[in-house]
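Hey, quick one: can you model this chain's 3D structure?
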Amino acid sequence: MLCIVTAGFILAAGFGTRLRPLTEYLAKPLLPIGDRSAISHVASSVRACSLTSIAANAHFRSTEVAHEAEALGLMVSHEDELLGTAGGVRKAWTLLAGESPNSNLLVATCDVLTRASFASLLDVAGVDAALMIEPRPYGEGNVGVDREGLIVRFRSEVLRSGEVSGGLSLGVQCLSARMWEHLPTKGCLVTDLYMPQIRAGSRVRAQETHETWTDVGTFTHYIAANIEWLGPRALWVGANAHVEGSTLHNVVVGEGATLFPGAYRNCVVLPGARVAQPGKNRVYWGDTFVDV
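Sure thing. Here's the predicted structure for all 292 residues.
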């Protein structure tokens, strides 16, 4: 039987430094993947688990992120000071469940989009947390897994012996209420929670998925996420966009954008952009673009 998980949390407070200067224009959680924002896609995946309440945190461009989160029906955990992933989880968990939570918490990040169901993470009976991974051969990836399916390595640091396979973390996890007391008020989930707790004997299950996933934290992966969303359509054009005279393949054109006639391939055009130079492997916003 699944343990009852009553809350969900979406990490959305970061600066998006790998996507600058785009994130100086629009915060990463608000960047469109196809017809809606990254945070909207992640919220749909979290909401599919039928949780009673969901929150997102906000720090960088917090007013904009909070507005979008509230429009999606999420509570907002405001961080005047960036608390890191672990500190952000602790603050949001308190917001959702009180000063001493006795429910589990599903945590996802706006960096990663996947079609994988998060429901498989919800059963944390017998473990302290469950972390979704893409399986890899022994020694590869940023986690190592033993024969019981428990994580014994993070990055290059072996926490316990017995690794038989590797994996890549998707940044989606479920924390049991037992982990609450070990969360720092500021810090990182990996280095300040999982690593010391696994050394101390905590059991963190690796939940494998074979579904595709994309880290949207770089320009290359941001374009890839949009192309993945397109699928066989190879083109999506938002309302009131002007694309006459253009040849478009694997292109997402946001609402109200205007394209100069020409050939475009593997491009993302943000809403309202004014595009004067056709090209390929580009992200366009405002009146500028980045080549990828």
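One thing worth noting: The two ends are 47 Å apart (CA to CA).
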